[in-house]
Amino acid sequence: MDAVIFDLDGVLIDSEQVWDEVRQSFAAAHGGVWTATATRDMQGMSTPEWGAHLVSLGVRLTPAEASAGVIAEMEKAYAEHLPVIPGAVDAVRAVSERFSVAIASSAPAVLIRVFLDVTGLPVPVAVSSESCAAGKPSPDVYLAAASQLGVEAASCYAVEDSTNGLKAALAAGMTVLAVPNPHFPPAGDVLAQVRVLGSIGELPDALA
């Protein structure tokens, strides 16, 4: 195995709830009606995809305007507090001593950069699905990260927390480890296909 590719939201930062709160508030402020499935539907979507989904919920903006507005609110939230998951920074540092590392995330590039700037982690490749043809559960962002690292997807571990993220990494042909999101637990049938960890802090030993 040559590399470990990390998801960001839910794996390295406890941000899924922040995204959910910001999107719900933004949608309500712009005429949207939140549905029972909206949260899970948007997990893993690329920026253009979830911008369009907000419009489908009744938000009276263009997809680009909706996504730009939400991202601006996320930047404000992160400026106040970046919710790094305990043990995540140490885990990435430990893994990077033995493997090439990358981030493959549905988060927009500007928010990935905020995370890397704040933590100072040695991550040479960070790919946002907003630069790919499709977001998760499509494997595009994982395949792009492996390509930029110069390794085969089959020689990569992927670390994920959500149903769509796990599906994306599996579709890319990677060996997948799950750190299930406690707020939005992934589907059991998908978890059955991967190795499940209790926390991100267990990762270095799991790869030993």
UniProtKB/TrEMBL annotation:
InterPro entries: HAD-like_sf, HAD-SF_hydro_IA, HAD_sf, PGP-like_dom2. It holds the Pfam family Hydrolase. Gene3D superfamilies: HAD superfamily/HAD-like, Putative phosphatase, domain 2. SUPFAM superfamilies: HAD-like. NCBIfam families: HAD-SF-IA-v3. This is Haloacid dehalogenase. It comes from Lentzea cavernae.
